[in-house]
Amino acid sequence: MSDKRPDDRRPHGELVADVLAVLWEAGEPMTAQKVNAVLGTGLARTTMATILTRLYEKGTLRRIPSGRGFAYEPVEDAAGLVAGRMRRELESEPRRDLVLKRFVSALSENDEETLRRLLLEAEDGSG
Predict the structure, then answer these.
(1) CA distances from 8 to 3, 49, 50, 93 (A)
(2) Are 31 and 66 spatial neighbours (Cβ–Cβ below 8 Å)?
(3) What is the pTM of this model?
(4) DSSP per residue over the chain, as a string?
């Protein structure tokens, strides 16, 4: 019997972030059992398999056959995952210009300069 109370459990989003961090660090596909071992959470293998399957179904992970199950690896690195979320949010908004304006106006000076540099590099690369 576990001495953990239900309110001692960490939030689902934190567990998913930890799972992704393990997979990014590994640099190779991992089974639910291996991910669970690295995390040391004591979760049931089936619980970890469910988390990995859901991430696969969302398109966050790809899976390959491994024994009688699957091994999983991230489709993108952490920056790519965040960029994808940002793009989906932008695409869901009919007033994209307003969203971009508000986004840019909230950037720090350093981030704004980085964005300017990246836009110039992208423009130079496409010409």
Answers:
(1) 10, 22, 21, 37
(2) yes
(3) 0.69
(4) -----GGGSPPHHHHHHHHHHHHHHH-S-EEHHHHHHHHT----HHHHHHHHHHHHHTTSEEEEEETTEEEEEESS-HHHHHHHHHHHHHHT-S-HHHHHHHHHHTS-HHHHHHHHHHHHHHHHHH-
The mean predicted confidence, pLDDT, of the chain is 88
Residue 48 CA to residue 97 CA, distance in Å, equals 41
CA-CA-CA-CA torsion for 18, 24, 29, 32, nearest 10 degrees? 0
In the structure, what pLDDT confidence band is assigned to residue 111 with cuts at 50, 70 and 90?
very high
The stretch 40-69 carries a mean pLDDT of 93
Place of tokens 């990014």: 24
Show the tokens assigned to 73: 């690896």
- Asked if pLDDT for residue 54 goes beyond 60, the answer is yes
Is pLDDT of 21 > 80? yes
